[in-house]
Amino acid sequence: MKIALVNPAWSFQGSIYFGCREAHLPLEYGYAQALLEGAGHDVLLVDAQLRALDSADVRAELARFRPQMTVLTTAPSYLFWRCAPPELRVPMTTAEAIRDVAGCLVIVGPHASTTPRATLKKLGADFAIVGECEDVLVALASSPDRDARLRSVVWLDELGSLGGNGEKNATKMSELPALRWSRELLDRHIHHHHRFDRPAQGSGAEVEASRGCPYHCTFCAKDNFRNGFRKRPLATVLAELDELIGNGVRYVYFIDEIFLPDKKLLEALVERDIEFGVQMRIDNWSTEMLDLLGAAGCVSIEAGMESITERGRSLLAKNCKLTTEELTSRLIHAKRAVPFVQANLLDSSSDPKEDVQAWRRRLHDAGVWANDPVPLFPYPGSPEFTLRFGHCEDDAWERAHAHYLREFAAFSDVQDERPCPLFELERVSHD
Could you check whether 2-165 and 174-370 share the same CATH topology? Predict the structure, then answer.
């Protein structure tokens, strides 16, 4: 079967979006392509984001390839599935442009997992995959019909009701190969995600050492499309890194939701000519492991602090065992080993504003960046959303979006403009 994997050219104009707006390697598609080709399928990966293609360009490539199945994601790469743009404007525009040349249209991403019926309807798609998509795509390509035996594949029946098996899929990380990206694609990847110690030099890349997270913080929607914490085999990760290094990459960002201490991985990185950034919880790291992290080449840490009080972290279900003073000390120590360290804060009623600003000044004086607290967006499927609105219905994204705009006048420091209402954003795709 001929299968196209489409990552659209993302636009964030007017959007609520907390992630990075630069292009990143579509890791989920890299894995899927390798698995599909291994099963004998002919695969075309169209990364419109990295290649700066518009919808017409994507349509033209599909028309030449003539796929029997096309896969379309509803959020930019796995890196930001967990903080996806709420609206489906870009996927809707893309689906509209390619529908007559796409063959069977399959939707993957957080919207497909959270609100599958609404997503299928908005995009006019044939199937949606619930959860992680790589191995499910192989199964679907082998049996591209409505078959209830296909796990984690859903569709709309003749009455508009959801059919199929909506069990959330968790990919076996041990079965995912080391990715091999073309030099042409890597040369386009000039962004070094979350690097602030110096300007980017040469190509960057993203690598996944683990998937999932053992914690269940109230603000996180990971459980909609992630199932537990799983590590990739060390040998696979190192083979992928060596391939990137051989292609001139000198900086990678580990996209892991939580980068946990792994002595063997860090010791292997000490021996390699590579710098990297991570996202972590500082309470999981001893001072000795932070020193090893720096020696291994880490130049950027993004640490989820969320609240400066024990009560605030408890309300967020952080399950943090350290005091605020211990966390602060750990962050300051990290800065001695790693050039850039950032502590992320959420806007919390339990944190007096004057205390937050005093804490931020203390961190800044020690060289650690701490952001101005960001209002919490109740992502559909997160414990916060469930507490406020109950289970996810078809209008879950609309409800979360309207609540956010209604409750807050200021947003994050990456939000340059007031976001537009969700219905206005999605209406653009049909104007």
Answer: no
pLDDT band at residue 145 using 50, 70 and 90 as cut-offs:
confident
Token readout for 42 is 């002919």
Give the Cα separation of 26 and 18 in Å (integer).
Answer: 18
User: Which CATH architecture does the domain made up of 2-165 adopt?
Assistant: 3-Layer(aba) Sandwich (3.40)
What's CA 59's distance to the chain center, in Å? 25
Cα 322 to Cα 94: distance, rounded to the nearest angstrom: 47
pLDDT band at 98 (very low <50, low <70, confident <90, very high): very high
What are the boundaries of each domain within the chain?
A: 2-165, 174-370
- The burial class, CB within 10 Å (0-12 / 13-18 / 19+), for 349 is exposed
Q: Which fold has domain 174-370?
A: pyruvate-formate lyase- activating enzyme (3.80.30)
Cut 0.90: pTM above it: yes
Q: How confident is the model at residue 430 (pLDDT cuts 50, 70, 90)?
A: low
Summary mean pLDDT of the chain? 93
C-alpha to C-alpha distances, 369 to 196, 265, 300, 307, 341, nearest whole angstrom: 11, 27, 11, 15, 6
CA-nearest of 305, 365, 368, 296 to 339 is 368
**369-379 mean pLDDT:** 91
pLDDT in tens, 283-332: 999 999 999 999 999 999 999 999 999 999 999 999 999 999 999 999 99
**Rounded Cα–Cα distance for residues 48 and 8 (Å):** 5
Sheet holding 42-47, edge to edge: 42-47, 2-7, 69-73, 104-108, 127-129, 153-156, 162-165
Identity of the residue numbered 191: H
